[in-house]
Each structure stands twice: as structure tokens, then as C-alpha cells.
Amino acid sequence: MTVYGSFPGARPRRLRVNPAMRRMVAETRLHPADLILPAFVREGISEPVPIQAMPGVVQHTRDTLRKAAVEAREAGVAGIMLFGVPEDEKKDGLGTAGTDPDGILQVAIRDVKAEVGDELVIMSDLCLDEYTDHGHCGVLAEDGRVDNDATLERYAEMAQVQADAGVHVVGPSGMMDGQVGVVRDALDTIGKEDVSILAYTAKYSSAFYSPFREAVGSSLKGDRKTYQQDPANARESLRELALDLEEGADMVMVKPAGPYLDILAKVAESVDVPVAAYQISGEYAMVEAAAEKGWIDRDKAIAETLLGIKRAGASMILTYWATEVAQGLGAGR
Ligand code: PBG
């Protein structure tokens, strides 16, 4: 580096001098089409129910879900990921409501499809925890363990009813071994070869899911450590990734997002399929709570979290702020 007298030869600050310059040299930009809105729809309610631990997020009625889908589409959001919350008395050991063609998620898929057609990518959570009375993502063996292969049979059936309802993308999120292959096979068997699979490839056992458990009224006691990944591990994500791709995943996801940006970067570097990241309920709750206390600037913090996730390599981000952020981007903010 040339140094002239006592002046620094290089001044990176020159490219930071004003907003116009910073805007021009920015490497990462958020776009509404990067965003996917996760949304909850609850059976048997006539008014939306606020989720305490997620201020601003509700359990939708069928009607308000349709409105939320329209609002998301109008803001330019790419897609919506639907979660069904059945009536409590419909939960059972097998998660039967998850495979009922008239179960709440299937009904919601049809509603949203009727409302927005193909203008918004309609995705569905393919997992049993919303429907089981024990709250696990699978069915239990006699000794109480989550039975992998028996669960796969349930996922195959779920994939088919969700596809029949008109979903564009299914999101197997239960972390059972072989789930992507079984779901692909089940879809192809009924002629749904155009329904894609967004695989929850690297899904960690995280403390940040807690608000979601309220959102879906989960009765889980204990944890999911025998099927979700250990936060201490990075390499096994690459193994999960290889398996999911081999089994036919069209897109892969890392979840949670913020505490796992290293995993996201590794995954994004090593694949040629689209990579998603899920900014989960606890990540949302932390920012909202600190902002409510006046400890951080809410809008700036939200933008920074999303930019970080995109910079790390995600081309699609699931976030509960999707519509709001997309609206702001549309307004040039
Ligand atoms: C499984 C599922 C979960 C989330 C999305 N899909 C819960 C879990 O694995 O425990 C969490 C999303 C969030 O916390 O925002 N059905």
C-alpha cells in the first residue's frame, strides 16, 4: 500500500460518505419477493386470537386468513406458509386431523387458493405436532419414543391431502429420516409431480420455538431432541442436506435463522437449489419485546436481521414481518 506522507493510502470511508453513496455500493438488498409469510389459521373461531408471545401476530379465522393472503400478495410477498390449529378435542395420538381432507389446514389451503390462485405461492407445514395430543412431530411407539417409520406413513398421507387441497409447496418439518423421499413418492403416486418440496433440511432443537408452541396451542411436554438437531453441530447439517437433495428436495431450509447464519452460509455455498431461512417465532418475539421497552429501534432492527439472513445466503426468508416489510419496501423505505 502506498502511503503518502502521513496520510492513509486507502480510505474505505469514502464509500460511506452519504446515503446515496452507501445505497449505490450496497451488496445486499431486500426485495418483497424474498419474503414468505408464515400464518396460523385456527378452527372454530369467529374472531382472530392474538398470540401473547408474538405481539402483532394472530391465529386467523378462515376469513381473516384470506384477507392476510390478499394483503401479502398486494405487498409483493412471494408466498405464504400455512399452519393449521385444530380444535383441541380433535387432537389425538395419530394427529388424525392432519390427514382429514376437511381438516383445518386443508380447508385453509382451499380458501387461500380460491382467493389468490397462483399469484402467491401457497405452502403448507407438513408435520404432525399441530394435530397430536402429545404435541410431538410424529406418532409414538409403545415405549413413548417417536416412531420414525410409522410417522413417515402419516406424512405420506398428509402430503397427499395437502396436495389435493391445491397447495403448491409442502414443507416437511418433522425431521424424520427419509421424510423427503417418502413425501416425493406419495405426491408422484397421485399425479402431483408438480407440487414441490421445501425441505426443512437443517432444523435445530431451539429454545426460540416457544412462542410458536402458543401459536399452535401445542401440548408438548419435554423436547424434540431425538429428532431435531443439536445446536452444537454444524457438519450434520451437510449430511442432512445431501440426504434431502438425494431424496428429491426442490428447495432447502435452515431454521432458526439468526443463531444459525454459519449453517446457512455453508448450505448456501454447497447447493444449486434455492435456499430458504426461517426467522422463527422467538427471533420475532425478542425484537418486538426489546422494541416495546424502547431498548432498540424496531424497524432498523427488523431490517438488520433480514439483511443479515440474506447476506448469509438465503434467497427466501420466512418471517412474520413479511407483509409489513414488503409494504415498507414498496413505499421506498
Ligand atoms: C413444526 C414446526 C415448528 C415451527 C415451524 N414448523 C415447531 C417446532 O418444530 O417445534 C416453528 C416456527 C416458529 O417458531 O416460528 N410443525
TrEMBL record:
Listed name of the protein = Delta-aminolevulinic acid dehydratase
This chain's function reads:
Catalyzes an early step in the biosynthesis of tetrapyrroles. Binds two molecules of 5-aminolevulinate per subunit, each at a distinct site, and catalyzes their condensation to form porphobilinogen.
Catalytic EC class: lyase
Q: Which SUPFAM superfamilies match?
A: Aldolase (SSF51569)
Assembly and interactions?
Homooctamer.
Which InterPro entries does the UniProt record give?
ALAD, ALAD_AS, Aldolase_TIM
- Which pathway does the record list? Porphyrin-containing compound metabolism; protoporphyrin-IX biosynthesis; coproporphyrinogen-III from 5-aminolevulinate: step 1/4
Q: What is its EC number?
A: 4.2.1.24
Gene label:
hemB
Q: Which domain of life is it from?
A: Bacteria
Classification of source organism: Bacteria, Bacillati, Actinomycetota, Actinomycetes, Kitasatosporales
UniProt xrefs under PANTHER family: DELTA-AMINOLEVULINIC ACID DEHYDRATASE
